[in-house]
Amino acid sequence: MSGGEQLGFDGMPQRLYACTPSRLNTWLDCPRRYRMTYLDRPMPPKGPPWAHNSVGASVHNALAGWWRLPVADRTPEAAGGLLARGWLTDGFRDEAQSARWRERAREMTERYAAGLDPADEPVGVERTVAARTDRIAVSGRIDRLDARGSELVVVDYKTGRYVQTADDARGSLALAIYAVAASRVLRRPCHRVELHHLPSGEVAAWEHTDESLERHIRRAERIAAEASAADDAYRARVPAPRRGEARTRVAAAPGRDAAPPVDHAPFDDRFPARPGRLCSWCDFARHCPEGREAAPRKDPWAALADET
Ligand code: SF4
Predict the structure, then answer these.
(1) Sign of the CA dihedral running 36, 39, 43, 48
(2) What are residue 140's DSSP bridge partners?
(3) What is the pLDDT of residue 1?
(4) Contact 177, 21 (CB under 8 A)
(5) Would you say residue 136 lies in a domain?
(6) CA of 32, closest atom in ligand 1
(7) Where residue 179 sits, what CATH number does that domain have?
(8) Dist. CA 196–CA 56, nearest whole Å
């Protein structure tokens, strides 16, 4: 039996659905976006990058780098230095806006690092964990995994405007999956999940029980079952491209704007559009008339506080 197969109830091999929390959430948000993200190859060209993603990635990278420094070097200033040196500039309106946000992000990162104990070594930083059930093989990367007492704690950094609550921590499928996967990989219990909102310094935490984690996993399996059935229907209609074909087609496109329109009609029964206000932030809105109608695309820097 291959690593990706389990025996089903009827004794026949049953393929595991390999996924990340992000893939499952994309299916829930909008099946059409899921199709364009995970199935259409070549992938339809995305819209321009978002400045808030640059802020988030820069801060995450700086904090990950900070934990890799020798303990004596883990000062708040070092965190700020890492942030400034690794600053990502995609998506900002201009250099001045990028520089302003680099300083904001530097302050935010230094403030956060000042509240950390440099000697309190995490069990994992940007640690990839994975777990299997009878139906899914799920994996993901945890920003930070702490050891507190005999238990592990999942820490997720947040850098956007929205300040998370305990309800967000409780309801997060991703955090619950990380907790289960971390516990299995490291063979230590893990029930607590935390969202660390760097701009405000707030921590939204939730203490799961075995039962609540189990409920999240069962939910992940239900979402996976839907997405997996849709994947199979897609593959039945669209044979896998011959090796190299996708690359050739991407290279042949004369430019991003010249990409041919995406024909959704053959897939709309299994991958319907789910237009709503999130369409403003969808990377594939340019290929989606319903989404553009529902919510105009925002400027790439529109999610930055005080910039709209
Ligand atoms: S624009 Fe909206 S409806 Fe269209 S694919 Fe994106 S999220 Fe879905």
Answers:
(1) positive
(2) 129
(3) 38
(4) yes
(5) yes
(6) 5
(7) 3.90.320.10
(8) 13
Query: Does the Cβ of 273 fall within 6 Å of ligand 1?
Result: yes
The residue whose CA has the least distance to atom 5 of ligand 1 is 33
User: Which atom of ligand 1 sits closest to the CA of residue 279?
Assistant: 2
How do 5-7 and 17-19 pair as beta strands?
Answer: unpaired
| 110-122 confidence digits (pLDDT tens) | 999 999 999 999 9
Ligand 1 pocket check for 279: Cβ under 6 Å: yes
Which amino acid appears at position 110 of this protein?
E
pLDDT of res. 266: 87
Give nearest CA residue, ligand 1 atom 7.
279
257 assigned to some structural domain: no
Stretches where the chain sits below pLDDT 70 are: 1-14, 241-259, 308
Ligand 1 pocket, residue 291 CB under 6 Å: yes
Cβ(288) – ligand 1 distance below 6 Å: yes
Q: What is the pTM of this model?
A: 0.91
Task: Kindly state if the Cβ of 285 falls inside 6 Å of ligand 1.
Answer: yes
- Integer Cα distance of 105 and 39 in angstroms: 35
Residue 11: the pLDDT is 56
Q: What is the pLDDT of residues 200-225, one digit of tens each?
A: 999 999 999 999 999 999 999 999 99
Q: Which amino acid is at 143?
A: D
Ligand 1 midpoint to CA 82 (Å): 36
Number of separate domains in the chain: 1
Distance from Cα 287 to the centre of ligand 1, integer Å: 9
Range of the domain at 203: 124-215
Closest CA to 262 of 90, 32, 73, 66: 32
Cβ neighbours of 100 (radius 10 Å) = 15
Residue 98 maps to a domain: no
Residue 80, token pair as written in the block: 């700020």
